[in-house]
Design goal:
The complex is a heterodimer of chains A (255) and B (252). Chain A is mostly helical and 255 residues long. Chain A has helices at residues 2-9, 11-33, 41-52, 55-88, 90-105, 112-119, 123-147, 151-159, 164-202, 207-216, 220-248. Chain A folds into 2 domains: 1-34; 44-248, MetI-like fold. Helices cover 84% and strands 0% of the residues of chain A. Chain A is globular, with a radius of gyration of 23 Å. Chain B contains 10 helices and no strands. The relative contact order of chain B is 0.13. With 252 residues, chain B is mainly α. The longest helix of chain B has 38 residues, at 161-198. Chain B has helices at residues 5-29, 38-50, 53-85, 87-102, 109-116, 120-145, 148-156, 161-198, 203-213, 217-246. Chain B has a single domain, classed as MetI-like fold (Orthogonal Bundle), CATH 1.10.3720. The chains are: A mainly alpha (255), B mainly alpha (252). The interface between A and B is large, with 60 and 56 residues.
Chain lengths: 255, 252
C-alpha cells in the first residue's frame, strides 16, 4: 500500500497524469461543444504521419525554419557588433539608446505592412521581419553584457599591453557571450512569431501559410501539426542554446 | 561615462536630429508609395488628432489591449498562486505551462478566426493568450522561491489559510508576477496588433492596413508611430511597476 502511494507521488507520474488529463479535457470539450472540423488530439495523431511525410508540408517547414535560422544568424552578427560597440563606447550608446530601446518595445508586427511595401510579397519581407524581430533583443542584451565586463579583467589585459582590439575579442566578447545567448533565446521566440506572421501576410510558402490555408479549408488537424512543429522548433532551440552554454561557456552560470 | 551633462545632452539631441533628418531626406528622395517624410507623417498625426479620429482609433486599440490584459492577470496570477500553494499540482503542470509559454500564439489566430469568426470576443481571446503565460510562468517561478520554512513558521504560529496568503505567499510572489506583467505588456501589444490585422479590422491596426492597401504611406507611418509611442509608454509603466516591487525581493 505504501509502495503504491509513493508511486503516485513521483514527479514523472504527476506530470504524465496531468498531460493525459489535459488531452482528455481537450478531446471531450471539442467533441461535446465544437463543430466536427475543430482539431482534437485523436484526429491529430491520426493525420500526424501523413502530414509529416507530405512533400508540401516538408517544403513549408524547410522554408520557414531556414528563414528563421538565417535571420537569426544575421541578427547575431549585426546585434553583437552593434551591442558591443554600444556597451564599450559611451557616446555611441547615448546616440543609439533611444532608437534601440523604442524599436525593441515596438510590436514588430506593426511595421510588417511597411516591410512588405519595401521588399514586396517575397521571402525577403519575411527575412526582414525576422531580423527586425530578433536584432534588438540581441543588441540590448549584448550591450548590457559588454558594459558588465569586470573592470579588473580589462586592467589585466592592459597591463599585459594587449592592444584594444585584442582585449575586445579576448575579454569583452567572451564576457558578453552569456548575455548574448540570453538575448538569442528571446530572439528565437520572436523570430518564429515574425516568420509566421510574415507568411500570413504575404502568403508565401511556409508553416504560417500552411496553417492559414488548411484552417481556411477546415482541415484544422493538419494545420495543427504545423503548430506542433513550430512549438518543437522553439523548445528545441531553447534546449540547444542551454546545452551549448553549459558545454562551451563554463563561466556562464545563468544564460 | 562622458564627463559633462551638457555633452551628453548634446549627443542625444544630435542623434535625434540626425535620425529625423535622415527620415525626412529618405522620404523626399523616394517615391511616396515607399516612404513619407517625417514632416508629412507628423502633419498627418496632427490632422488625425484634430478630427478626433486618432483618439477613437487609439481608444479602440487600448480597450482591446486592456480587456485581454486584465483577463490574463485575473487568470494568470491566481492560478500561479494556487500552484504555489499546492506543490503536487505545480509539479504536474509546470512543464506544460512552460511549453505554452514558448508557443508562438500567433499561429493559433487562423483557428480562432475560423471557429469564432469576427467580433470583439475572439480578439480579446488573442490578447489574453499572448499575455497570460508570462504572468502564469513567472508567478510559478516566484512561488518556487517561497521558502518552505516561512510557511512552516507561519503555520506554527497558527496562521490561518487567509493570513498565510496575505503575509507570505502574495508578498513573496508579487515581484515575480510583476516581471511577468512587464513581459505580458510587450506580448499583449503584439497580440493586439495581430488581432486587429487578422481578425475583424479595427483600431490602429486597421489604420495601418488601410494605409498599406491605398499606398497612403503617411497614414501608415502615422499609425505606426502612435503604436510605437504607446508601446514605449506602456512598457515603461511595466518596468516602473517591476522596479517598485523588486525592492521586496531584498526582504529575505
Amino acid at each position: 500500500m505504501t509502495e503504491r502511494v509513493r508511486l503516485l507521488d513521483t514527479p514523472w507520474f504527476l506530470k504524465l497524469a496531468a498531460g493525459v488529463a489535459l488531452l482528455l479535457v481537450w478531446e471531450l470539450a471539442v467533441r461535446g461543444l465544437a463543430p466536427a472540423y475543430v482539431a482534437k488530439p485523436t484526429m491529430i495523431v491520426r493525420v500526424l504521419a501523413t502530414v509529416l511525410s507530405d512533400a508540401k508540408f516538408l517544403s513549408a517547414a524547410t522554408a520557414t525554419l531556414t528563414a528563421v535560422a538565417s535571420g537569426l544568424a544575421l541578427s547575431v552578427l549585426a546585434g553583437a557588433a552593434v551591442g558591443m560597440t554600444m556597451g564599450r563606447v559611451p557616446w555611441v550608446e547615448l546616440a543609439l539608446r533611444y532608437y534601440v530601446n523604442s524599436l525593441f518595445a515596438t510590436p514588430m508586427i506593426a511595421i510588417l505592412p511597411l516591410l512588405t511595401l519595401w521588399f514586396g510579397y517575397t521571402g525577403d519581407a519575411r527575412l526582414a521581419t525576422i531580423v527586425f524581430a530578433a536584432f534588438f533583443s540581441i543588441t540590448v542584451n549584448t550591450c548590457d553584457g559588454a558594459r558588465a565586463v569586470p573592470h579588473e579583467y580589462l586592467e589585466v589585459a592592459r597591463s599585459f599591453r594587449a592592444p584594444a582590439w585584442k582585449s575586445l575579442i579576448d575579454v569583452v566578447l567572451p564576457a558578453s557571450m552569456p548575455y548574448l545567448l540570453a538575448g538569442l533565446r528571446l530572439a528565437a521566440g520572436r523570430a518564429l512569431i515574425g516568420a509566421t506572421v510574415a507568411e500570413f501576410f504575404t502568403s508565401i510558402n511556409g508553416l504560417g501559410y500552411y496553417i492559414l490555408f488548411n484552417s481556411r479549408t477546415f482541415r484544422h488537424n493538419e494545420a495543427f501539426v504545423a503548430v506542433i512543429v513550430l512549438v518543437a522548433a522553439g523548445v528545441g532551440f531553447e534546449v540547444l542554446v542551454g546545452w551549448a552554454a553549459r558545454r562551451f561557456m563554463p563561466w556562464s552560470r545563468r544564460a | 561615462m562622458l564627463a559633462s551633462r551638457w555633452l551628453r545632452l548634446a549627443v542625444v539631441a544630435a542623434s535625434i536630429a540626425a535620425g529625423a533628418a535622415l527620415w525626412e531626406w529618405v522620404g523626399h528622395r523616394t517615391s511616396g508609395a515607399f516612404m513619407a517624410p517625417l514632416s508629412a507623417t507628423l502633419t498627418r498625426i496632427g490632422q488625425l488628432a484634430a478630427s478626433g479620429e486618432l483618439f477613437g482609433r487609439a481608444g479602440s486599440s487600448l480597450a482591446l489591449f486592456f480587456s485581454g490584459f486584465a483577463l490574463a492577470l485575473l487568470v494568470g496570477a491566481p492560478l500561479g498562486l494556487l500552484l504555489a500553494r499546492v506543490p503536487r499540482l505545480r509539479i504536474a503542470l509546470e512543464n506544460y505551462a512552460m511549453v505554452l509559454y514558448a508557443t508562438p500564439m500567433v499561429a493559433l489566430i487562423p483557428f480562432i478566426l475560423s471557429i469564432m469568426g469576427f467580433g470583439f470576443g475572439p480578439k480579446v481571446l488573442v490578447v489574453f493568450l499572448f499575455a497570460v503565460f508570462p504572468v502564469l510562468y513567472n508567478t510559478i517561478e516566484g512561488a518556487r522561491s517561497v521558502k518552505p520554512e516561512l510557511i512552516e513558521v507561519a503555520q506554527s504560529f497558527r496562521s490561518g489559510e487567509w493570513q498565510l496568503w496575505r503575509d507570505v505567499m502574495i508578498p513573496y510572489t508579487l515581484p515575480y508576477t510583476m516581471t511577468g506583467v512587464r513581459l505580458a505588456i510587450g506580448r499583449g501589444l503584439v497580440g493586439m496588433v495581430s488581432a486587429e490585422f487578422f481578425l475583424s479590422p479595427s483600431g490602429l491596426g486597421e489604420e495601418i492596413m488601410m494605409g498599406s492597401q491605398n499606398f497612403d504611406t503617411s497614414l501608415m507611418l502615422a499609425a505606426i508611430l502612435v503604436i510605437i509611442v504607446l508601446g514605449v509608454a506602456l512598457i515603461d509603466i511595466g518596468r516602473a511597476l517591476e522596479n517598485h516591487f523588486a525592492r521586496w525581493r531584498g526582504l529575505s
